[in-house]
TrEMBL record:
<protein>
    <recommendedName>
        <fullName>Negative modulator of initiation of replication</fullName>
    </recommendedName>
</protein>
<dbReference type="InterPro" id="IPR010985">
    <property type="entry name" value="Ribbon_hlx_hlx"/>
</dbReference>
<feature type="domain" description="Replication modulator SeqA C-terminal DNA-binding">
    <location>
        <begin position="51"/>
        <end position="157"/>
    </location>
</feature>
<dbReference type="InterPro" id="IPR013321">
    <property type="entry name" value="Arc_rbn_hlx_hlx"/>
</dbReference>
<dbReference type="InterPro" id="IPR033761">
    <property type="entry name" value="SeqA_N"/>
</dbReference>
<dbReference type="InterPro" id="IPR026577">
    <property type="entry name" value="SeqA_DNA-bd_C"/>
</dbReference>
<dbReference type="InterPro" id="IPR036835">
    <property type="entry name" value="SeqA_DNA-bd_C_sf"/>
</dbReference>
<dbReference type="Pfam" id="PF17206">
    <property type="entry name" value="SeqA_N"/>
</dbReference>
<feature type="domain" description="Negative modulator of initiation of replication SeqA N-terminal">
    <location>
        <begin position="1"/>
        <end position="35"/>
    </location>
</feature>
<dbReference type="Pfam" id="PF03925">
    <property type="entry name" value="SeqA"/>
</dbReference>
Length: 161
């Protein structure tokens, strides 16, 4: 895959030409240039599209707090990638904090008021008592480790607001 720079006018055209939520710029260009659809839909793009549908669903929009949205996205992402869940444990922690752990106590022992919550798939615990910006940062790391693309990650993080 190659990356290109485009000017603002072309970018605005791509935005206006988007026909469905979560449609990639590549898909818009293929349609506009009458190239046709990509021959193979990758596993990543399927997962990305599922995540985008979820964060735009009425079920997800009904969730009121950033913490609950953070957990819902992580649960959904882990549910779709049980093998990748172990990679969350390899993500770096903070100076003193552990963000992902196998046991609740591993998170609780790193500070006061950590409020660990369980992600059922893979039996992973996650620290939830942090600012929304930090949740976005950890969500970016987690979704990246689980193999999500940049569009899905960006929109998932924006959905925490």
């Amino acid at each position: 895959m190659h990356k290109i720079d485009i000017d603002d006018e072309v970018y605005e055209h791509l935005l206006r030409a988007t026909k469905r939520l979560g449609e990639s710029a590549n898909d818009v260009l293929r349609r506009e240039l009458k190239i046709g659809k990509a021959s193979v839909t990758t596993r990543q793009s399927q997962r990305d599209e599922e995540m985008l549908r979820y964060i735009n669903s009425s079920q997800f929009r009904a969730i009121k707090t950033a913490t609950k949205k953070y957990l819902a996205i992580l649960i959904r992402a882990c549910d779709k990638n049980e093998k990748g869940v172990a990679q969350l444990l390899e993500l770096p922690g903070g100076r003193e904090r552990v963000y992902f752990a196998r046991k609740r106590s591993e998170i609780e022992n790193t500070g006061k008021s950590t409020h660990p919550e369980q992600i059922p798939t893979g039996d992973i615990w996650v620290l939830t008592n942090m600012a929304t910006d930090q949740k976005r940062s950890k969500l970016t790391d987690a979704l990246g480790a689980l193999g999500y693309g940049s569009d899905a990650i960006t929109q998932a993080c924006a959905a925490l607001a």
